[in-house]
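User: For my dataset I need records formatted as: sequence, then structure tokens, nothing else. Please produce one.
Assistant:
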Amino acid sequence: GLFAAGSLTVANAAIARPGMVNYVEGNVTLNGQVLGANAIGSAEAGPGQVLETGMGKAEMLLTPGAFLRIGDNSAVKMITPSLTDTAVEVERGQANVEVDQIEKENRLEIVTNGITTTLEKNGVYQFEANPARLEVYDGEAVVRIGDRNVEVKKGKELLLAASAVNPKPRSFDRNQTGDLYAWSKLRSEYDAQASQASAQTIFVNNGGWYRSEERRVGK
């Protein structure tokens, strides 16, 4: 199943915008500007802006129901931060995308190595930049390689190479998860808890729960 049962409440969606930086730890920059804890919930990646980590991690909203999380030494570029057409490019390192809620009007695209992956269903997806590949822990994605669409389902991975003559997904061990996956799972649990906070708390505090959560994590 997905990392956590809780998806964002309607109240939370009111302040949740594509590209909003939800959480940072360690060395994180947005378009070259260092992001500290005070940027959480206010910094937003605009078109063409790059969210980048050194030794650090970051979480960014793609839509109110989808989170992108990047690990150490990673960079993602926002292509279009629109609710109906959300696209980011994984430039280096790795990115984990958790989709808790996807509407038919949402178009969620992740570009890696020049190849576009469209996320079709709720699930957990991991992208590596080098060598470029997609791993589907849960859900379903469609990868456009040349003039063909390749479906990648739960438990399958696909190398993202434009030169692939006959690209075929292959099985991978979903138990081999690694550091970013573990961190994403933990973040997902906190996001689910936070989304259950009352609408009043979220509106009055306008994102104050991010900071209280940080203390809870022991930052």
